[in-house]
Amino acid sequence: MAINLIKKYDAFLEINHFTEAQRKVSLRAVFDRDIADNEDFNFRTKIIRPLKKEDVIDVESLFKHLTHKTEDVEKDKRGKVIKTRNVFDFERSKRLHWILPHINELITSEVEVFSSNNRIDGKDVIRTYIHNKEKEYVIILEPQSSGIDYYFITAYYLEKKYGGPNMIKNKFKNRLPIVY
Fold first, then answer.
1. What pLDDT, on a 0 to 100 scale, did the predictor assign at position 55?
2. pTM score, two decimals?
């Protein structure tokens, strides 16, 4: 399992042959090293923080978000759809160690960084995208309202069957003049 700690961009993490428990331990070690325990996890001098849930920084939800995908939806008592991240996503997970070199801007030739307005839950929200065009990979950050730090939203492989490459091209066409 320690083999994944020495993997570099653009190799994939080795997770296919692990049991679910071994896979989680291996991925968690990479996540902790690169993100959770990394005191220098910054993008262009702004600290990157996980989203808060009920005013508590939720590192566990971020880990699950970076390694699982939504397929099934549940409904609450009022009938409102609740998305659940309950399906392990090999495509996201095997690229988990790609996040840090992109955040540190060590991969530059095929990467475009831009901000775009997004309509989320009826509100206009600015999000910053780090898009690796060659590898069809994206990292999404959201500037905090203070403008001082970022929230880490997600990172994933852009799959054609879900419209990912076209979605990011449209966001790039409508990008804002500055990166927030």
1. 56
2. 0.89
